[in-house]
Design brief:
This protein is an all-alpha fold and 397 residues long. The chain has 18 helices and no strands. Helix 3 runs parallel beside helix 5, helix 10 runs antiparallel to helix 17 and helix 13 packs antiparallel against helix 18.
């Protein structure tokens, strides 16, 4: 079996490229809105098409990753994803862009589930928490992708050239990185050799009522991912429309948000080890809610950037913390854990934006963002009511 360090670095690269590609598309959202003359509800509608694509893939992505190997699903889903990201920016009307957004959501979620499943396998083989760090590389990729977009928009170069050029480079890098991923077969063989009586007992527990045991993790993941989806798809629109920032300054705000997420996630595994999952989860909820409120009521673009930074810190480790804890609490890795949590959590990152679009059209974006901030604080009562014992089982690892 190949070196664990090589496999770890390769899955890091996959996360980085996924984030870089997605954040390369995000700054084009207000440009597409202006070009097609879309209202907030219309924009929410095309984002809903992406959400439907995410929901459509959830019942099958985890199963295919477990059946054929997460490394194989990463390889082939990436081929479609890096092409699908660039298509919506060139669609001429509402129907065609909705179809393109469905394809983006479908292929992006397919790759997302598979790379997280592969990451959990690497984590189990290494015997220590790495999921926050992997998501840190996703956010680092988001920072790089958004930064490239901001620089591109500021230069006298056609915006229509941005996505085709950068995505072609990302696709080549993806094909190189995926060749060194840890195979599920190698992970299973390695773990079987290490298995002892304690691990066998955990396997017996996790086979009973797996869905019910993971449901609280999924609810918290839904809340966190809802907020992340709103900030990702609507923060640039909010700054552009409510603060008249223009596309360049709005892209800078999104880059700051992505940078804050990356920095927090890259240190997230150490924070969990030092302070414990409970403290990190509850603090994250508070910061995510506070940052969204600061952005919502900011009187100036600089204050909005501060809100983006705080929100990015708060949202950073919620999902990877929950994935890692769920895997440890059940003794199960791979596509099964990811797909169950993704059924609630990952769908929210796409479902949140269209909901906010509808609220924004009816009551204004300020109201929509304020409601999002309140919703993010709901992780705290969910933990108090349902998750204490489950996180104690997961420990701090």
């Amino acid at each position: 079996m190949q070196s664990h360090a090589i496999a770890h670095n390769r899955v890091r690269a996959i996360f980085f490229l996924h984030g870089a590609a997605f954040s390369s598309w995000v700054p084009h959202i207000p440009l597409v809105q202006g070009r097609l003359g879309l209202g907030h509800d219309d924009l929410g509608g095309i984002l809903l098409a992406a959400a439907i694509g995410v929901l459509a893939v959830m019942p099958i992505a985890g199963r295919l990753a477990d059946r054929f190997g997460s490394e194989r699903v990463v390889r082939f889903s990436g081929l479609f994803y890096f092409i699908a990201v660039g298509i919506p920016a060139f669609m001429p009307d509402y129907l065609s862009i909705s179809i393109a957004m469905f394809s983006l959501g479908f292929s992006g979620a397919f790759l997302d589930v598979a790379m997280n499943a592969n990451g959990l396998q690497v984590e189990r083989v290494k015997g220590r928490s790495i999921m926050s760090g992997l998501h840190g590389f996703w956010s680092l990729g988001g920072f790089v992708g958004a930064g490239i977009a901001a620089a591109w928009f500021a230069l006298p170069i056609g915006n229509e050239l941005h996505l085709p050029i950068v995505l072609s480079q990302f696709l080549i890098a993806h094909m190189i990185a995926q060749a060194g991923l840890l195979t599920d077969r190698d992970a299973h063989d390695y773990l079987a050799r290490k298995q002892d009586g304690t691990e066998k007992s955990a396997a017996t527990i996790k086979d009973r009522n797996l869905f019910l045991m993971l449901l609280p993790f999924g609810v918290c993941a839904f809340i966190g991912q809802f907020g992340e989806g709103v900030l990702t798809d609507w923060a640039t629109v909010f700054m552009n429309s409510e603060l008249s920032s223009g596309p360049t300054l709005a892209a800078v705000g999104f880059a700051i948000y992505s940078c804050a997420m990356a920095a927090t996630r890259l240190s997230g595994d150490a924070l969990v080890t030092r302070f414990g999952r409970v403290q990190v989860l509850l603090t994250s909820s508070v910061l995510a809610s506070l940052g969204t409120l600061v952005l919502t009521f900011s009187p100036h673009i600089a204050i909005a950037w501060l809100g983006c930074a705080i929100a990015g810190m708060g949202l950073a480790v919620i999902l990877p913390l929950l994935l890692s804890a769920a895997s440890q609490a059940t003794g199960k890795g791979g596509g099964a854990v990811v797909s169950i949590i993704a059924a609630t959590g990952y769908s929210a990152i796409m479902a949140g934006p269209p909901v906010i679009g509808a609220i924004g059209e009816a009551a204004g974006l300020v109201t929509a963002f304020a409601l999002t901030a309140m919703f993010l604080a709901m992780i705290i009562p969910v933990y108090l009511l349902t998750m204490r014992s489950r996180l104690q089982i997961a420990g701090n690892g």
